[in-house]
Amino acid sequence: MPEYKTKDQKRTFYKSNAWQVLRQEALVRDNYECQECKRQGKVFTDQHDPDKHKRLDVDHKREIYTHPELALELDNLETLCIRCHNRKHNRFKFKKKKNKWNDERW
Ligand SMILES: [Zn+2]
Ligand SMILES: [Zn+2]
Questions:
Q1: What is the pLDDT of residues 37-89, one digit of tens each?
Q2: Which one of 34, 47, 102, 106 is most buried, counting C-beta atoms within 10 A?
Q3: Which ligand is nearest to the CA of 80?
Q4: Alpha carbon of 84 to ligand 1 centroid (Å)
């Protein structure tokens, strides 16, 4: 079982072909829509915006750090826009507090 605990391990994973292929599958399955925005009823799609794909991330519902066995499970993936993704990890919200999101911790 591979581990994704260090930055290098994660970088290798996110650069891997297997991830790129699966990531694309998740985007197609989710219609290139942020699933969180969708749940909140504000679907974010702009068919004419050539940049839209750049604003979407594919998130692991269960982090690969704690669930490496789910790293390549389509069911564990969810398309999120950058904003929702950051919010999920509290990247901005708690920026100045002590318990800020810490890449190493996940
Ligand atoms: Zn969103
Ligand atoms: Zn994430």
A1: 999 887 655 555 555 555 899 999 999 999 999 999 999 999 999 889 999 98
A2: 34
A3: 1
A4: 4
